[in-house]
Amino acid sequence: NASLTEDGTNLILTDSDGSTVSIALSDIDDNTTNASLTEDGTNLILTDSDGSTVSIALSDLTTSTFYTSNGTLTSSRIVNGGNNSLVFNTINAYQLFTTTTQISSTNTIDISSIQSLRLGSTGNTTQISGALGIQLQNATHVQDNLRVDGSYSDSSGDAGVANQVLTSTGTGTNWVDVSSLETVTTITDTNGATTKKEIATYSNEAGGAAVSINETVTSLEQDNTPTTTDPTATGEITYTDENGSTSTAQVVSADANNNISVGADGGAFLSMPIIYAAGKVNADGTVNTGAIYNASINKVNTNNGGSGGGIEGDYEVNFDIPLTNINYVIQLTILDCAGDCPGNTLDKYDDPGITYYNQTVNGFSVNIKDSDNGTNQGDDIDLDFMFSVIKLPN
Fold this sequence. Notes:
Order of helices and strands: EEEEEEEEEEEEEEEEEEEEEEEE
Number of helices: 0
Radius of gyration: 61 Å
Mean pLDDT: 79
């Protein structure tokens, strides 16, 4: 029952789920000595000592409890066991949804499960503490990272000392000194060569005397005598290996008619004329793709001088890279026009010629003209020609 009140007419009994029973005040006498409490199948009958009765219809009484229906606490409740036991048997699920849950015991709290037992937190840490420590009684599997803030004891309870390592004994663990796990190794110098170089020293695990680690010195030497000093020079390279054996290699062959010689630094040197520039030029000064090397052509459309000259027949050959002097050889040739070279009149031109002028380190100029085999000055004509430039070894 939650409350007992009266409204001036009735006495009202209200239970914990809000159900009420009303008894008319006029039906209540002031005799408070009850003799019996009976029921006749319809009413609950309360009889006092002087025979007065109070009847309450059984239908007005509720049998609802927290075992048979849900309800809401209207205030705090305390259940005092009085040193008795509270046992729940064959409950399918037991759930507590609280702001704070506290379970304490003056003796032992035993939480067990036939299958698995899960402790966890979805918002913070799960803390388990004990005044004398925490004991995990069986094999433990940690599925994530593990951090130990204090010491880590081995199977005998020994936390070890600095620089010891934790080892397995097969049935447990044990802290041991690193030195007990080390194998003492040694290094012996077996190379008897007198020419060697120390590259490191080694001291074994027991702190023994330092032993040198040497490398055998190999060598590579070259006879760089130039051909100008010794015509038989080959720039020979001599290699000495780790065992002191030698082998040689020739930079320049000693075979007859070899134009390669030994240079001042011992390397191979070839001194001979080379084609520095070359080309095949069309009459209008253009050049077909791939028909010129290391030069470009400029068609000159002005008279190169002289009363017999004209605007035809003159070309400039310009080197891509200037030479260091003008001691180069120019070779020129023109197309055979079968006795009828192109000219300025209807007369046949049958005596063409090609010459060069204005030779510089940057290039030279070319003039093509036809003469009449007489005393008259030649007439400039445009004609296909080829050229090559030979650079001499100077």
